């Protein structure tokens, strides 16, 4: 009787939750990273953050055991597919780096009324920045109102109240890491209505 009571106390009555690790790069479980398109980066992330799981998934024994279950033709197809995926991922990474290097950031100082200005910044999303977070940060930094608005051309820009074009230029170059050659400052005047 006492052993039955001890067993009943140690066995949980409800099912326990499992702890699942998700990849920091593609947000899939590490077992499925190979299907995400960023397998190389995912593998590096897993090796740095969860070495035991990396050893379990990518050790030579694990890879050999997985490949031994495939037929010879399937092994050849798997090798060919993995080479294609790696080449595709490298090409996508190179293309993203090229577009980021060519992307322009425009900082426009627009006159609202006689001596009132707003500063509109466009082109930040091409450099991988979240416009809402940038607008919130600038609102706090410059102690003004800032928001994300849609432009007439269909894009989005961050609008900051006041003439902060010089400070925004410095922030974009220093904090965001955009090259100075890719940042343009423009002064825009509203035309008077006649």
Structure description:
The chain has helices spanning 2-10, 39-49, 51-58, 60-68, 72-102, 131-142, 165-174; strands at 105-111, 117-122, 146-150, 156-161, 183-189. By secondary structure, the chain is an alpha+beta fold. Strands 3-4-2-1-5 form a five-stranded mixed beta sheet, covered by helices on one side. It is elongated and about 75 Å long. 12% of the residues are buried.
List strands and helices in order, with pairings.
Blueprint: H1 2-10, H2 39-49, H3 51-58, H4 60-68, H5 72-102, E1 105-111, E2 117-122, H6 131-142, E3 146-150, E4 156-161, H7 165-174, E5 183-189
Parallel strand pairs: 1-5
Antiparallel strand pairs: 1-2, 2-4, 3-4
Helix pairs in contact: 2-3, 3-4
Provide keyphrases for this structure.
194 residues; alpha+beta; 46% helix; 16% strand
- Secondary structure class reads alpha+beta
The radius of gyration is: 27 Å
Tally of DSSP helical segments: 7
Choose one word for the global shape. Answer: elongated
Order of SSEs: HHHHHEEHEEHE
* Main β-sheet description: 5 strands, mixed
Number of strands: 5
Question: Mean of residue pLDDT?
Answer: 80
Low-pLDDT runs: none
Percentage of residues in DSSP E strands = 15-25%
Query: Percentage of helical residues?
Result: 40-55%
Strand order of the largest sheet: 3-4-2-1-5
Amino-to-carboxy terminus distance: 98 Å
């Amino acid at each position: 009787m006492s052993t039955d009571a001890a067993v009943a106390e140690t066995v949980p009555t409800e099912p326990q939750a499992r702890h699942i690790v998700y990849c920091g790069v593609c947000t899939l479980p590490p077992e499925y990273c190979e299907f995400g398109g960023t397998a190389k980066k995912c593998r590096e992330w897993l090796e740095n953050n969860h070495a035991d799981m990396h050893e379990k998934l990518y050790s030579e024994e694990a890879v050999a055991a997985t490949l031994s279950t495939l037929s010879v033709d399937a092994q050849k197809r798997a090798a060919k597919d993995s080479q294609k995926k790696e080449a595709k991922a490298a090409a996508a990474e190179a293309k993203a780096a090229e577009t980021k290097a060519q992307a322009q950031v425009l900082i426009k100082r627009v006159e609202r009324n006689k001596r009132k200005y707003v500063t509109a910044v466009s082109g930040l999303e091409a450099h991988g920045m979240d416009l809402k977070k940038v607008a919130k940060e600038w609102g706090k930094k410059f102690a003004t109102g800032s928001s994300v608005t849609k432009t007439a051309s269909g894009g989005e820009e961050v609008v900051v109240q006041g003439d902060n074009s010089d400070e925004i230029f410095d922030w974009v170059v220093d904090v965001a890491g955009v090259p100075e050659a890719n940042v343009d400052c423009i002064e825009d005047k509203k035309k008077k209505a006649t």
